[in-house]
Amino acid sequence: MESTTKGSFAVVTGASSGIGLELAKQFAQHGFDLLIVADSSKIRDAGNALKSYNVSVSEARIDLAKSGGVDELYRVIRDTGRPVDAIALNAGVGAGGDFVRETALDADFNVIDLNIKSTVHLAKLVLKDMVARGRGRVLFTSSIAATMPGTFNAIYNASKAFIQSFAQAIRNELKDTGVTITALMPGATETNFFHRAGMDDTKVARSDKDDPADVAKTGFEALMAGDDHVVAGSFKNKVQATMAHVLPDSMTADMHRKQAEPEQEKR
């Protein structure tokens, strides 16, 4: 694999930590030069660490949820003068809590803006270039959350259901173009996601979680194999994703409630 990818160029969003950083490491280990993106100052630390793989690494600190963020990133991509061989559309955020009585509307809109709007916008721009070239690989970070109603994480799960459906639809549209689309579906992973989503006081946040390095390796291998999707992490994730297709939504919504409901609200 390394001999065919050395000198290729990949873009990874949400790459300052967690699954995004581990995906960037996978690309670097396989000879891809990198443009990594995040809205955190930690993106520069990530870039410095990735340079140890002897590939070219550049960083862009951009908030993709903000108006103009995607256009700014696309200008950065074009300014490199290099075609994008692979892109991991990984940036995402959650907002835990009761939709009606707890989560702020601004926080809900931020999930939609980052997880859905920016992903669609960036995919539209980058995929046009890939199709024109007749080759390219796109990895969408979806989730097993896409398979069930997200009680106490309603907007996040709905956003991932959108991404899962979107990825599979455009994969079919592009099946004869030389461009492949892969959806990575992790379960609960040891990242900063739950803290940022305000979910520290939940069963899922306190549970044993998957290693982001393992999740990223699974996703990268699926991307390079041209797979349509892959459920990453523990065997429990695969069982959960399978059960979600069999059980009624009312039951999976209640199962999700048990994992994501804040402890102080349980009664």
Give the name of the CATH architecture: 3-Layer(aba) Sandwich
CATH first level = Alpha Beta
- Number of helical segments with 4 or more residues: 11
Quaternary assembly = single chain
Assign the CATH topology: Rossmann fold
Number of domains: 1
Strand composition percent: 5-15%
Number of strands: 7
Please give the order of strands in the largest beta sheet: 3-2-1-4-5-6-7
Average pLDDT over all residues: 93
Distance between the termini: 53 Å
Q: List SSEs in N-to-C order.
A: HEHEHEHEHEHEHHHEHH
Question: What is the fourth-level CATH superfamily?
Answer: NAD(P)-binding Rossmann-like Domain
Describe what you observe in this structure.
This protein is of the alpha/beta class. The chain has one domain (2-265): Rossmann fold (3-Layer(aba) Sandwich). Helix content is 49%, strand content 13%. The chain has helices at 2-5, 18-29, 42-50, 69-79, 105-133, 154-173, 193-196, 203-206, 212-225, 235-246, 249-260, and strands at residues 9-13, 33-38, 57-61, 86-89, 136-141, 179-185, 229-231. Strands 3-2-1-4-5-6-7 form a seven-stranded parallel beta sheet, with helices on both faces. α2 crosses α9 (212-225), α4 packs parallel to α5 (105-133) and α5 packs parallel to α6 (154-173).
